[in-house]
């Protein structure tokens, strides 16, 4: 349940497969909210509701989620992605559970990494502690844009990527990257630029959602994203500049990482591969 304060004028956003339906709250009682349609559309099943600038008061991990988590451990999954993370406590709770499974269940693979989805108002407020507790993050731009002013989303994306780089943790950029390819065989040029910007900013993963979930051209969408990402990564400018100053400074006290960083920079500049022999 989401607590709706104030009533009049609060905007409700209903995420719909083809866009968003916007509703303005006119009045409310204990179990009824009356709204005026601002931006209409077809209301489909299994969509979810966002209240602008508010976070849900639900638990991040439900009883059903715990059942799924146990199933994942027993079947040796590699990652859990936790939605609507409000604070670092939910990450610690999940990690403590995974450690207990590893300790008391012989043969279980509990070396599972926890990725947090940054998609709510609370997750932005508590961003430093959440990222510190996690093993990586996803910039869930769809929900961020529904809960916060859309002009803030590009700035938040860049900030989250920079923070993850500084912590040397992987970061995923997701949602609406090739949205037009749900219905069309070619992307818009703006979408191509969107992928390029995420790669240049230093994202480790760019992710498709509806394009491969229910789109008409899933394989083409994957090929486009793959091709664009490889082309942008291959440019020397990206190789030299995608690692931010903050990440570079994180290497300062680690001599081995300093050598590795500069060796990689030289190899990228002259387009020469590196072969490394290891003992393990």
UniProtKB/TrEMBL annotation:
Pfam families in UniProt: PK
InterPro entries per the UniProt record, alphabetical: Pyr_Knase, Pyrv/PenolPyrv_kinase-like_dom, Pyrv_kinase-like_dom_sf, Pyrv_Knase-like_insert_dom_sf, Pyrv_Knase_AS, Pyrv_Knase_brl
Cofactor(s) this protein cannot do without: Mg(2+); K(+)
Substrates-to-products reaction catalysed: pyruvate + ATP = phosphoenolpyruvate + ADP + H(+)
GO CC annotation: chloroplast stroma; cytoplasm
Highest taxon in the source lineage: Eukaryota
Pathway in which this enzyme or protein is active: Carbohydrate degradation; glycolysis; pyruvate from D-glyceraldehyde 3-phosphate: step 5/5
Family named by the database record: Belongs to the pyruvate kinase family.
Residues covered by the Pyruvate kinase barrel domain: 18-222
Record carries keyword Ribosomal protein: no
Single GO term (MF): magnesium ion binding
Entry's Gene Ontology BP terms: glycolytic process
EC number: 2.7.1.40
Protein name: Pyruvate kinase
Keywords linked to the UniProt accession: ATP-binding, Glycolysis, Kinase, Magnesium, Metal-binding, Nucleotide-binding, Pyruvate, Transferase
């Amino acid at each position: 349940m989401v607590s709706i304060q104030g009533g009049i004028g609060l905007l409700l956003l209903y995420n719909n497969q083809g866009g968003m339906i916007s509703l303005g709250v006119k009045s409310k009682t204990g179990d009824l909210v009356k709204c005026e349609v601002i931006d209409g559309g077809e209301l489909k099943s299994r969509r979810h509701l966002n209240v602008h600038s508010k976070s849900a008061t639900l638990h991040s991990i439900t009883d059903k989620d715990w059942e799924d988590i146990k199933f994942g451990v027993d079947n040796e999954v590699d990652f859990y992605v936790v939605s609507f993370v409000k604070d670092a406590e939910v990450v610690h709770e999940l990690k403590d559970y995974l450690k207990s499974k590893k300790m008391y269940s012989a043969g279980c693979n509990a070396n599972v990494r926890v990725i947090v989805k940054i998609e709510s108002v609370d997750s932005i407020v508590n961003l430093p502690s959440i990222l510190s507790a996690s093993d990586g993050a996803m910039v869930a731009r769809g929900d961020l844009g529904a809960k916060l002013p859309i002009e803030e989303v590009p700035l938040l994306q860049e900030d989250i990527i920079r923070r993850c780089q500084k912590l040397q943790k992987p970061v995923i950029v997701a949602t609406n990257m090739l949205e037009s390819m749900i219905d069309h065989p070619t992307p818009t040029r703006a979408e191509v630029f969107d992928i390029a910007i995420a790669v240049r900013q230093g994202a480790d993963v760019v992710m498709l959602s509806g394009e491969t979930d229910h789109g008409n051209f899933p394989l083409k969408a994957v090929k486009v994203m793959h091709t664009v990402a490889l082309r942008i990564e291959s440019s020397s400018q990206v190789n030299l500049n995608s690692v931010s100053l903050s990440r570079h400074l994180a290497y300062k006290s680690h001599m081995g990482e300093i050598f590795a960083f500069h060796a990689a920079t030289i190899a990228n500049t002259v387009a020469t591969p590196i072969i490394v022999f290891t003992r393990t």
